[in-house]
Amino acid sequence: MARQKPLSLYRNIGIIAHIDAGKTTTTERVLYYTGKKHQIIDVHDTKDGKGSTTTDYMEQERKRGITIQSAAVSTEWKGHQVNIIDTPGHVDFTIEVNRSLRVLDGAVVVFDGVAGVEPQTETNWRLADQYKVPRICYINKMDRIGASFAHCVQGIRERLGANALLCQIPLGSSDEFVGMADLVAGVGYIWASDDKDSTWETVPLDQLKDRLKFGATVDNEWIANLPKLREEMLETALALDDDAFERLLNTGEHDPALLKQCIRRGTVTGELVPVLCGSSYKNKGVQQLLDAVVDYLPYPGENGGIAMVDEDGNVIGEQVVSDDAPARALAFKVINDQFGTLTFCRIYSGVIKKGDTLQNVTRGKKERVGRIVEIQADSAREIDEVRAGDICAFVSMKDTETGDSLSDPAHPALLERMRFPDPVISVSVEPKTRNDVDKMSTALYKMVKADPSLKLEVDKETGQTVLKGMGELHLEVTIDRMRTELGVEANMGKPKVSFREAFGHIVEHTYTHKKQSGGSGQFAEVKMIFEPTAAGTGVQFSDEIVGGRVPREYIPAIEHAVKVESNQGQIAGYEVVDFKARLVDGKYHDVDSSALAFEIATRQCFREAQKLSKPKLLEPIMRLEVVMEADYLGDVIGDINRRRGTVSDQGHKGTSAFVQGFVPLAEMFGYINFLRSATRGRGTFTMEFDHYEDVPASMVDKLMEKETK
C-alpha cells in the first residue's frame, strides 16, 4: 500500500513543561479543536475518579491530578497528521520526557504565565538540547492573577539561554486577558468569550491601541510598543535570509510567506525559538498554537535522521528518514496493560508490515511483528503497516526493551540509544502474603522492564528485594500500579538513599597473592596507583606496564577485577566512583600465574588501597524549589538550614514567594508533611537530583546508623 500522506504533512511533537503548567489541559483543547473529541474534561474534575482526560487515564493520574506516564495521541489539523505525546512534569518521571524527546521531531514547551521558568522546565530544556529537538514556547495561563509575559520571556532568555522570537504578545492579563497580537500576521485576535466554541475577531495591529484599554499599565505598554516589537521580530527572523533582510532595510517591506519560511528555518536549526501565548483553560490561543506547530516545527527527517552507532556507542553514520531505506525503528517505551505488552516504536526508515520479522540488533534476537496498533492514549486501532516517520506500538514482543534497535534482518543497524538517569532512592519491597512471592517477582520484573529509571536488586546480606527509583512518589506509584494493573499487593519499606564512595587521596599499593598447597600453586603481584578524579568521570583503568612485567593476557582480568570491586566500597559497601586505577608494575610466575590469580590480587589490592586512602562517603544533593505565601518564607528557610541545606536564591513569582537551594536527599524524606503543616497546605515543592557531595566526617556514622535501621 502506497503512502497515504506525504512525509512533509507529518508532525511528531511532544508537550513538555514543569508540573501544573497546563500540558494536559492544552492537549485536551488540541484534541477538541482538531475534532478528535467532542467534550472537554478538565484535570481538576478528575480527582473524584469519575472522569479522566484523554491522556491522564491511569487511576494513579486521576487520583493525584498529575501526568505520570507519557501518552500518545494522533489527530489532524489543516491536512497535517499531528502525533502528540503528553509528558509528565513531575521530576520523578523525567524518564518519560527523556525517552519521548528522543523520538520526537519537535516540542511545545508550556510555561505557567505566573511562575515562568521553573526547575523542571530547565531539566526538560536541557534534555531537548541534548537531543537537538526544535521547540516552540507557549506561555499559558495568561488569565491568572499575577501572570507576567515579560517575566516569562526574561526567564526563557536568561535561564534557558534561548533566542526567543516574540511571535505573539498578550492583549491584557489576569481577568482582562482577551486575546493576543500576532506579530507575524500583523493582526490581533480578540475573543468574544471564554466559551470553548467562542469565536474571535481579527483586528489590524494599528487599531488595537484605540480598541483596548486595560487597568494594568504594563498591559497598555505592550500595545503601545507593538510597532517596535513587530519591527524587532521582522529583523531577527529575516536576518536568516540576506536578500529578504536587505529588502526590509531598504524598503521596509517583506514577503509574508518568506517570513514564515525564515522563522521555520530558524526554529528547525535551533537558532530561533518562537514564543506564543494564551490560556488553554479559557480556550484562547490553542488554534493559533496548532498553526505554529504546522508552520514552524519540522516534519520527520527535516532536521536530520538518527545517528547509527557501533557497539561502543560511537557514531558511524546517519539513517535518513525514508520509505525506500531498510526498515529501522527505535523502541522508546514498553508498557503492560489490557492489550498485553505494548512496545512503542518510532519508525525511522522503511516500511514494516504485519507478519514481518525484525532483528533486535541490541540483543541479537529475532522478533515477529504480530499486530501493529496506533495508540490513542488508552485505546488502540489496528493498522496493517507503518512507514518512516510513524509512531506506533507493536503488540506482544517478547525480548524488546526500551532503547532497543529493531531492523530489517538483512540490514542490521544500531540506532543511538537514550541516556537514562541513575536512581537515587531505594525501598525494600515485600509481598503482602506468602502466596504472592512469585507473582510479586514477575510483576516487579515487568515494571522494571517498562521503566529504565527503576532498578531491581536483591540485598545479599538480608535477602530483601530492593527497588530503586527517582523519588518517593516514583516508587509509591510503581507499587500502586502493580496493584491496579497486575493485581499484585506489596508492602513498601522505608526509603533508603543511594550513597556513593570515593578514594580520599592518591594511594600507591602493592599486593602479592601466593597460594601453595601441593600441586600447581597461584602467584600474582600487582602494584597499582589509585587516584580520585573529577565528579562524573567514572571508573578509568590505565595499563602502564613496561618490559612485560605482567603478560598482556592477564591485563583484561586485572581491569575486570577493578570494575567489579568498584561496585562495593569499604565504608559501607556502596559503589566507588570517580577514580583512575593505574597498573604500574607487577610480577608473575611462568607456572603458577593465571588470570584468576591476577584477578584475586587486584581485588585485594583495591580493597586495601581504598581503606588506606581515607575513603569518603558521597551523598546525593537535591536541587530544591519551594513556592509558598511570603508569610511562611522564614520558616521554610530555617527548615532548609536545619536539614543541612543551603539557600541559593529567593524572591517572588507573582503573588507567591519562592526559595531555591540544595539539600541532601537523606534529610528530605517526609518533607511534604512538614511543608503542609508549616504553610497550612499552601506550599508546594519540587526536587531533582543535582550532584553528589562529600558527607561531613561527623555525619557518616549517624547516616549509616539511620540507613541500617
UniProtKB/TrEMBL annotation:
Any idea which UniProt keywords this protein has? Cytoplasm, Elongation factor, GTP-binding, Nucleotide-binding, Protein biosynthesis
Protein's UniProt keywords contain GTP-binding: yes
Output this protein's name.
Elongation factor G
Which InterPro entries does the annotation name? Answer: EFG_II (IPR041095), EFG_III (IPR009022), EFG_III/V (IPR035647), EFG_IV (IPR047872), EFG_V (IPR035649), EFG_V-like (IPR000640), EFTu-like_2 (IPR004161), G_TR_CS (IPR031157)
* NCBIfam families attached to this UniProt entry: EF-G, PRK12740.1-5, small_GTP
Residues binding GTP, per UniProt: 17-24, 86-90, 140-143
Q: What is the lineage of its organism?
A: Bacteria, Pseudomonadati, Pseudomonadota, Gammaproteobacteria, Lysobacterales
Tell me its family.
Answer: Belongs to the TRAFAC class translation factor GTPase superfamily. Classic translation factor GTPase family. EF-G/EF-2 subfamily.
SMART domains tied to this protein: EFG_C, EFG_IV
Domain (Tr-type G) spans: 8-302
As recorded in Swiss-Prot or TrEMBL, the protein's gene is named fusA
Function in brief: Catalyzes the GTP-dependent ribosomal translocation step during translation elongation. During this step, the ribosome changes from the pre-translocational (PRE) to the post-translocational (POST) state as the newly formed A-site-bound peptidyl-tRNA and P-site-bound deacylated tRNA move to the P and E sites, respectively. Catalyzes the coordinated movement of the two tRNA molecules, the mRNA and conformational changes in the ribosome.
According to its UniProt entry, this protein's organism is Rhodanobacter terrae
Localization per Swiss-Prot or TrEMBL: Cytoplasm
